[in-house]
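Whether sequence alone determines local backbone shape is best considered at the level of individual chains. In the encoding step, the backbone of a single protein was reduced to a row of integers, each denoting a local shape. For completeness, the protein is quoted in full, as a sequence line and a line of structure tokens.
***
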Amino acid sequence: MHREFKLKVELTKSDVKRLIGSDGAPGIGIGPATAKRFKSVYYDTPEHDLHAKGISLRVRRQDGAWVQTVKADQQLRGGVSDPVELEAPLDGPEPEVGKISSKKIRRIVQEAVKEGGLEPVFETVIRRTTRPIKTGGSEQQLAVDDGEVRVDGKSQDLREAELELKAGTAQGLLVAADTLLGSSAIKFGIRSKAERGYRLALGKEEGGQEPEKAKPAKIRANDTCAKAFAAVLASAARQITVNRQALLQSDDPEGAHQMRVGVRRLRSALRALRPLVGRASLWSFERSARDIGRCVGELRDADVLISGIYSPTHAFAADKVGFDQLHETLLRNRQAKREEVRREISGPAWTRFQLYLALWPHTLEENRALDRSVKKHARTMLAKTWRKARKLGDRLVSLSPEERHAMRKTLKRLRYQAEFFAPAFDRQNARAFIKQLETLQDVFGYLNDVHMAPRLFALAGAAADPARAAGYIVGQHEAEARHVWGAAKPAWKCLKRTEQFW
């Protein structure tokens, strides 16, 4: 069975013209364009049984002949698809199930069509322009589609590009994608042509995206580093991309919070890969993640100033003079940050970052240094991060503000690494360690929020009443911080006593 490996992006009219007419760039060769027009008819049972099983079946007139194409496993993950594709020549425009070459898929289709047979569901009409691409030792094909999906008198524009790896490495595909797409605000595809057609046929509307917490990476003790880190990076990428969409569609602060957490998890995973992956693309990926994380972090800080600093104090303050004016200022500051972040995560910086999220993990399979056991590597990384935490924790009471900040970041990195690699060890011991780690993190997290509180003075400006309210809020939190800091030492002792599960 042939499997494709390609990146899919949605295009505007101007994108179509630019990609068709591109002359290339240093390090990349682009061949001449070839244009063809295709009309494809997609078939299914009256109850759409093939679609329910994740299979599409189409018939297309191609180069003077009829061709049937069956695809399975078509999910788009971060713009990347790797479907099974089965082609067969036909004598006419009607599908022939018996010509499906895979016995397994043929049986699935035969079972599905046993009762109702096949009938046309929708069609796509496109003008496809293809160009061969060469990057180093890799070869790709760029296909630019401009057309529409049609069903029962309804239609929907269809403009997209697919960059498919024909020969070579995923690293080569990443270089080509970065060169061709990295400088534009490109939206990655989230649905195949078949899925678009079914949604149009069924009248499904696009819904809003809710914020989403991290989904654990599924790794096993006997996994290689390549397989385990691919799962970890996929988990972080989902958390980032889903919550980016939530941030764009909603003012819910949870979207920014979860996207920031996702970026931090990603950076922790990339940091753990440094000893094994010494290529320049890893550093580029880290820089891109850092820049996006910093931008989203500023919005999250604006949220915390309201929910974590202002609101708790306002609830108990007897004298509320200046509080309302300060609150309005904080709301305007947050809205400005939100608009700034939305521009940033809709522009070229996000496009380049998204390319790395989608394609870079596939380069891990090409690195022989990652064939080693993830459990062995996890022990090394966890022990290294734990030593750094202990070096600071053992003189906890004398830490400077800068050192407290360093310890907070180290503990956060340790927690993410522990969560990543816990499935490779005893789960009960891992859960106990992570729980104690979270208790200590809560202390440092609050102290970090209090460290931001003096920003209220700058936001309040010269107006007397808001400045007075800011002074009261900062004073209350500084007093509370001294009390909370008292819990740090016993929490640290408990963590030290907890078995290091690795």
